[in-house]
Amino acid sequence: MPDSLMYQQDDFVVLETNQPEQFMTASELLEKLKKILQNFNFQDLPKDLQKFNSVEAQAQYLLDTSCELDIGVGQYLQWYAVRLEK
Fold first, then answer.
1. Distance CA 84, CA 82 (A)
2. CB of 21 within 8 A of CB of 15?
3. What pLDDT, in 10s, does the model give residues 16-59?
4. What is the Cα 75 distance to its own chain's centre?
5. How far apart, in whole angstroms, are the C-alpha atoms of residue 28 and residue 3?
6. What is the C-alpha separation between 14 and 21, in angstroms, rounded?
7. Per-residue pLDDT band at 3 (split at 50, 70, 90)
8. What DSSP designation does 44 have?
9. Residue 37, class by beta-carbon neighbours within 10 Å (0-12 exposed, 13-18 middle, 19+ buried)?
10. What interhelical angle do 26-38 and 55-65 show, nearest 10?
11. How far is CA 66 from the centre of its chain?
12. What is the pLDDT of residues 54-74, one digit of tens each?
């Protein structure tokens, strides 16, 4: 049986255009995603995010199910769960 520790997502490495890699907690990444999503027009959001009525729900869905968000031509935002301690 797999160890439940394998599925914890407490920390993330975040890769963003023209920025050094950053380590963020889940709550920090959630806040970052919310700020980015607030600047999107509803029609420009990916279809799977349009079913949610709040930015909070959209950001949580991304955090739970994705590892990247298309934020524009030539730009990227990616995040990957990491374990920082043994």
1. 6
2. yes
3. 999 999 999 999 999 999 999 999 888 888 899 999 999 999 99
4. 15
5. 25
6. 6
7. very low
8. G
9. buried
10. 130
11. 7
12. 999 999 999 999 999 988 888
